[in-house]
């Protein structure tokens, strides 16, 4: 039996000024339209709330990733913030729940990333992988805690990406051997993602994935704006918190 995973639109504004705002995006919620005119998007919800403003996303989160999204209110501000991203002046940190218990407390991964279909067969077009000819990438990880759920081992990890490659945190954690819980693309070679596209969300998939979203959350963002340090923090979502104490 196929189940439905409804988009969520219950977001909050964490910080705001005349030039930008920081949205606490829920999951699942896609940011931009993808061709399906009836699909709910973060951009659409923002436009509906404030139709007189044109919004520009400075950073992007996957549909199933929650947390801090920086949104400019003009193209000029978007370009300025985009240059700050390029200079690595906007610091971001994430929380992830992964399968397994890492044998390290801290580790930094600098393996380059490339789209998998560019060097070997991949049924999932968007799937990325570590590859020596990929783009330079760097993510640091810190083990926060280990726990069990249903007899299986899991860990909470703080992730700090210094570059912004597609699916970077997800790819580097898969490379380390600790895929993110609920990640349909990187936790079982993409098989769950292909099944989801073909059959929809099923009870069997939920049993395998353990969550109906990937357990990745953009928890913190910090940057300097007009001489002031701006810091935004997003609380860990209840569905992920509950998984950690089950």
Write a structural description.
The protein is an alpha+beta fold and 246 residues long. The chain has one domain: 2-Layer Sandwich (Pseudouridine synthase), CATH 3.30.2350.10. The chain has six helices and 14 strands. Strands 2, 3, 4, 5, 6, 7, 10, 11, 13 and 14 form a ten-stranded mixed β-sheet that branches. It has a two-stranded antiparallel sheet with strand order 1-12. Strands 8-9 form a two-stranded antiparallel sheet. A hairpin with a 2-residue loop joins β13 and β14. The longest helix has 12 residues, at 75-86. The protein is globular, with a radius of gyration of 18 Å.
Enumerate the spans where pLDDT stays under 50 for 5 or more consecutive residues: none
User: How much of the sequence is in beta strands?
Assistant: 25-35%
The 3D shape can be described as: globular
The tally of helices reads 6
Short description:
The chain is an alpha+beta fold and 246 residues long. It is built from six helices and 14 strands.
Descriptive labels:
two-stranded antiparallel ribbon; 6 helices; ten-stranded mixed β-sheet; 246 residues; alpha+beta; Pseudouridine synthase; globular
